[in-house]
Amino acid sequence: MQVARATIFDVAQRANVSIKTVSRVVNREPNVRDSTRQRVESAISELRYRPDQSARNLASHRSHLIGLVYDDPAAYELPSSGYIIKMQEGALRACRAGMNELLIHPCDFRKKTVGAELKALIRDARLSGIVLAAPLSNMPRIVRAIESTNTPLVRLSPGSVITDLPTVVTNDREVSAEMVRYLAQLGHTDIAFITGDPLHEAVADRFLGFQDGLAQSGLKMIKRFVIAGDNSFRSGEACARKLLQRKHRPTAIFAANDDMAAGVIRVAGRMRISIREQLAVAGFDDITLSRQLDPALTTVRQPLARMAEHAVAMLANHSEHSNYECVPATLQIRESTGPAPVKH
Amino acid sequence: MQVARATIFDVAQRANVSIKTVSRVVNREPNVRDSTRQRVESAISELRYRPDQSARNLASHRSHLIGLVYDDPAAYELPSSGYIIKMQEGALRACRAGMNELLIHPCDFRKKTVGAELKALIRDARLSGIVLAAPLSNMPRIVRAIESTNTPLVRLSPGSVITDLPTVVTNDREVSAEMVRYLAQLGHTDIAFITGDPLHEAVADRFLGFQDGLAQSGLKMIKRFVIAGDNSFRSGEACARKLLQRKHRPTAIFAANDDMAAGVIRVAGRMRISIREQLAVAGFDDITLSRQLDPALTTVRQPLARMAEHAVAMLANHSEHSNYECVPATLQIRESTGPAPVKH
DNA sequence: GTGAAAGCGCTAACAC
DNA sequence: GTGTTAGCGCTTTCAC
């Protein structure tokens, strides 16, 4: 079946040029006359020539392999792995566009050995670039390990940007403030916040945004309405219990991610507190679960696919892109938020 | 920074053998004296030698690249993408063990062009093997397209196995029967079933298992208690509404997947029907959501990671494995099922 | 602008 | 058991 593939020699022969010229055309190098280029190009398409990556890599000493490194959901039974699919989707799109391949590498960031593991990965797989997802991207130890190999690196959502490393973020802080202003406009004044995993800096920015939003709405933060969660569904439940058992309870709860917000909804349901009528709940991320909850969750849609796409593009084509890219997130208003209950 | 990598020549020199002998050791070929092998192996580890994949591939005309092809969740806002992460996890594990690399390829099975798309993928990426997930694995058109390229293929959960192609399955039918027997033992006699996506054959096997289970428990199937869903959360809700609005309603509902079971739980909640006390609900898959529901869902745990691992191992090492592997699923009894309500 | 020749690091085929 | 040699299909260097 399998017909022998055309090689660069076949193309050269057919176009009546040397293989070097074909190589120039394929690699978009200068110094080729237009008429020559066209001849070569038609030969390429007639023969359906595709350069052999292995030969290319071997001769050029570079791989066209980009590594996507993220926290391993299998290591902790992470609740919502949908964000990984989103990242992969975007990264894949950019890889195809840039003739690159994608190597996925989930890893357990709690292990002391991640740094060494990533160095070995870079070495063994000869990665030509790495996209590092949060929270790995905000861990200096890990970032430094990768930097020490001189492999091009783009960080995804590293939170407060300290270095001048190539970075793609979303506007966690601004959009969180926007959510708070939205709640305030609905008449809410007693707004609680459930903070997320302290190791995850981008999530910490959401808390800053919460404070901004309160200030912008002329509200002040009520200390006992700020409770520490850890991004998990369970922690959302625990925090909700603490908040809702009080005599004076908040009329709105903004959780730093959707999983925790889902926990809030579950607990409120059990306590027979009506979401939306008696309690507004908002989350962050827009995971699939948020549409399956009852009521559907008001949240922030994080453009993860486009962020990952940008990151790979920065790697593949560093000249045309800036060092820092912000892909804005947007409010997704659904059913879990409504006007504040009137006080009696 | 980057120290020059050791090549096969360096190793040969250090071990005082020819490069061919090093190659033999690396590739686990026979005909090497034990003492020689050991000398070579210590040279390899002293020099931290890792064979160059590109050179290897180029010389051997094989790529060591395995493609994992599955339905693209981005194409339909598929509810639970967790199963993909699980498959990737297992496939990745087997790839590392076998010195292979993994290329992930989500694709939209409803497009007429998938066959051509996969052929192009195989050609361009020079895949040395493909693992095809359900429901793509039960679509003759797609399977034939891949077969026509002579690329080794392993199918994951293709449902009723018609051909002798290498296949990895789980015991959908048997374990579904087991679930029904479990419900019957709890005293349930009016058990409803919500069928899944008709394009997905492995899911159809679950319905067969449902019938087996009834028969084994001396129960007969009640036609009006069998309702057609399509694997989606929404369809689970719709089916539940139909089932529960009747004057004579089932005391247990077994849905062909967890998403639909989640829909049942939501609807029952709205109708103030108490799950477990008044209605037992069971699902299939054990997606993350099933643990976050209230009450937590009784379901079937599908060993997707190990199935994918097996599939890749079959590809990498076809001699040592049989052509057909069944990794059994197991019941996960949680909170959503209990004794049948006593009749008044 | 274009081409010739020398590898890249490995495997395959065969010799010893 | 072990070694020799000739490529694999490309990029690189340098010559023209």
| Top-tier CATH class of the largest domain in chain A | Alpha Beta
Distance between the termini of chain A: 81 Å
Domain module tally of chain A = 2
**Assembly annotation:** homodimer
- CATH third-tier fold name of the largest domain in chain A: Rossmann fold
Q: Tell me the overall shape of chain A.
A: elongated
Going by CATH, the architecture of the largest domain in chain A would be 3-Layer(aba) Sandwich
CATH superfamily caption of the largest domain in chain A: Response regulator
Order of helices and strands of chain A: HHHHEHEHEHEEHEHEHEHEHEHEE
- Structure annotation, total helices of chain A: 13
What can you see in these coordinates?
The structure is a homodimer of 344-residue chains. Chain A is an alpha/beta fold. Chain A folds into two domains: 65-170 and 304-328, Rossmann fold (3-Layer(aba) Sandwich); 172-302, Response regulator (Rossmann fold), CATH 3.40.50.2300. The relative contact order of chain A is 0.12. Chain A has helices at 8-15, 19-26, 34-47, 53-60, 82-97, 114-125, 140-147, 172-185, 201-216, 233-244, 258-270, 289-292, 304-316; strands at residues 65-71, 101-107, 129-132, 153-156, 167-169, 191-195, 226-228, 252-255, 280-282, 299-301, 324-326, 330-332. The model of chain A has no long low-confidence stretch (mean pLDDT 91). Chain A is built from 13 helices and twelve strands. In chain A, the strands form three sheets. Chain A has a six-stranded parallel sheet, with helices on both faces. A four-stranded parallel sheet of chain A has the order 7-6-8-9, with helices on both faces. The N and C termini of chain A lie far apart (81 Å). Chains A and B meet through helix 4, helix 5, strand 2, helix 6 and helix 11 of A and helix 4, helix 5, strand 2, helix 6 and helix 11 of B. The structure holds a DNA duplex (16 and 16 nucleotides).
